[in-house]
UniProtKB/TrEMBL annotation:
List of residues binding Mn(2+) 1: D273, D350, E352
Protein name: Probable cytosol aminopeptidase
Domain (Cytosol aminopeptidase) ranges: 348-355
Domain of life: Bacteria
Short name of any one Pfam family annotated for the protein: Peptidase_M17_N
Enzymatic reactions: Release of an N-terminal amino acid, Xaa-|-Yaa-, in which Xaa is preferably Leu, but may be other amino acids including Pro although not Arg or Lys, and Yaa may be Pro. Amino acid amides and methyl esters are also readily hydrolyzed, but rates on arylamides are exceedingly low; Release of an N-terminal amino acid, preferentially leucine, but not glutamic or aspartic acids
Residue numbers binding Mn(2+) 2: K268, D273, D291, E352
Cofactor binding summary note: Binds 2 manganese ions per subunit.
CDD domains in the cross-refs: Peptidase_M17 (cd00433)
Source organism per UniProt: Nocardia aurea
Job description of the protein: Presumably involved in the processing and regular turnover of intracellular proteins. Catalyzes the removal of unsubstituted N-terminal amino acids from various peptides.
UniProt-listed Enzyme Commission number(s): 3.4.11.1, 3.4.11.10
The gene coding this protein: pepA
Length: 503
């Protein structure tokens, strides 16, 4: 099963100036105010949605209790004057002064999720923000079903919406926005697919092959180090974590050479994290299929930078390993030598992410990038500190703040966290240069970042994103996010890369 390479990821997206005759559902936006709900936008599309049709719709929607609250859904039969349309779905946008791109993305996503089994949807949300509406529909309609067979395969009324037409006021309106939204949403879906592919099917060698296949198709330079090359190169962190598994580790390096400025992306690719000899409890261990979400995001973002043709060079360095307990696994107390020579005492084999990332960060530094961004489902402490939807952003002060700000601008909620210097001494080891964990659990997310900081070359602007919670949704669907892989932080990464390219 090659879920990543060959399936169609989401609905067809197209712009349209007219509402076609076979429209199943027209999706409109509804803002809320003291005077009741209002259709938004109110200044566009008067030829297809005239004053009398709007008045009739508002009457009908009001009669069944529509208020325009954020993400509220109200479906009514299409007014007689609205030819070719079967029904109208009003999706709430909340207060008119708070309708930003993220609200439109979420509302479109909620609408898309409620429209399974629908062939053709037309929407006016494109009049508010075409790109955000397109991303929201595409990502809201995302499902992952390659492992559903026979009886459990989606029925026709459960299949995601097939085609979404975005209503536009003029022929050229939103052409570049749609192209970008389509590529961005596909990249997010690619990251989700990788995360959602079970660990039985996505192990280091397979992950490397799939990443290389996509990268070659996008015209990137690809290098894959297998276990022998890792041994020869001295990648002790990746080898140490991978050696408990019958499925050997890999290090994948993808380069999109688009310009003089250089950004390196590093992503944690633990295809499954049992904890190793410091084994995790059985409860919820299955969620550790998501422990390669950082890798998925940096691979998808690098492919996206290439597809967008950004004037910048992006190199992804992605260590991949399966953290298993076995007679060949590393032990608590073992000392390994990271790529570049630093020795580390492995106190806890479940703190494996930082070991594979350290090798990759040192390797990334050899390409002399001006910026290094690493992404990892690194610590449970991230969830304790910030919850399930807020990535922790650490690193060098200015760049950390810039990445966190951009992350919030794109609706991925990154929040800057400090690296208190007093925590560093807790990573001292009696036998090696460093210990992989502190002897206490305070500030676990920060302590992991301080470990990584030891491997970041002097003078490089660095950001570390801990997405342990945000990369994988174990709760119910919300907005444009279903259960499972979320694709966070692909949109942050591409926005940061674009921001650097535009400097
Ligand atoms: N992959 C986990 C972190 C994680 C936890 C991700 C929950 C997603 C959800 C990581 O490898 C890990 O096990 N971290 C340990 C570190 C500890 C041993 C210092 C943790 O957070 O408990
Ligand atoms: Zn892990
Ligand atoms: Mn772990």
């Amino acid at each position: 099963m090659t879920a990543v390479a060959d399936r169609s990821l989401g609905p067809e997206l197209a712009r349209t100036e007219t509402i076609g005759p076979d429209t199943d559902v027209l999706v409109i936006g509804l803002t809320s105010s003291e005077n009741g709900p209002a259709i938004a936008p109110d200044d566009l599309f008067s030829d297809v949605l005239g004053a009398d049709i709007r008045a009739e719709l508002l009457d009908q929607l009001g009669a069944v209790g529509a208020k325009g609250k954020p993400e509220e859904l109200t479906r009514v039969p299409a007014p007689a004057g609205l030819e070719g349309v079967t029904s109208v779905l009003a999706v709430g946008l909340g207060s008119p002064d708070k309708v930003d791109a993220e609200q439109i993305r979420r509302s479109a996503g909620v609408a898309a999720r409620s429209l399974s089994g629908t062939e053709l949807v037309v929407t006016t949300l494109s009049g508010l923000d075409l790109g955000a509406a397109a991303e929201g529909f595409y990502l809201g309609a995302y499902t992952f079903t390659p492992f559903k067979s026979g009886k459990s395969a989606p029925k026709s009324d459960e299949r995601p919406v097939v085609r979404v037409e975005l209503l536009v006021p003029e022929p050229e309106f939103g052409t570049t926005e749609l192209l970008r939204a389509q590529l961005v949403a596909e990249a997010v879906a690619t990251a989700r697919d990788f995360v959602n592919t079970p660990p039985s099917h996505l192990f280091p060698a397979e992950f490397a092959t799939r990443a290389a296949t996509l990268a070659e198709a996008a015209g990137l330079e690809v290098e894959v180090l297998d276990e022998n090359a890792l041994e020869a190169g001295g990648y002790g962190g990746v080898l140490g974590v991978g050696k408990g598994s019958s499925r050997p580790p890999r290090l994948v390096r993808l380069t999109y050479a688009g310009g003089d400025k250089k950004v390196a992306l590093v992503g944690k690719g633990v295809t499954f994290d049992t904890g190793g000899i410091s084994i995790k409890p059985a409860q919820n261990m299955e969620n550790m299929t998501s422990d390669m979400a950082g890798a998925a995001a940096v691979i998808a973002a690098t492919l996206l930078a290439a597809r967008l043709g950004l004037p910048i060079t992006v190199t992804a360095v992605v260590p991949m390993a399966e953290n298993m307990p076995s007679s060949t696994a590393q032990r608590p107390g073992d000392v390994l030598t990271q790529y570049g020579g630093t020795t580390v005492e492995v106190i806890n084999t479940d703190a494996e992410g930082r070991l594979i990332l350290a090798d990759a960060i040192v390797r990334a530094g050899e390409d002399s990038p001006e910026y290094i961004i690493d992404v990892a489902t690194l610590t449970g402490a991230q969830l304790v500190a910030l919850g399930t939807r807020t990535p922790g952003v650490m690193g060098t002060d200015d760049f950390r703040d810039r990445v966190a700000r951009i992350s919030r601008e794109v609706g991925e909620n990154g929040w800057a966290m400090p690296l208190p210097t007093e925590l560093r001494a807790d990573l001292n080891s009696k036998v090696a240069d460093l210990a992989n964990v502190a002897p206490h659990r305070w500030g676990g997310m920060l302590s992991a970042a301080l470990f990584l900081k030891e491997f970041v070359p002097e003078g490089v602007q660095w950001a570390h994103l801990d997405v342990a919670g945000p990369a994988y949704n174990t709760g119910g669907p919300f907005g444009y996010v279903g259960k499972g892989g979320t694709g966070v932080p692909v949109r942050t990464l591409i926005a940061v890369i674009e921001d650097i390219a535009a400097e």
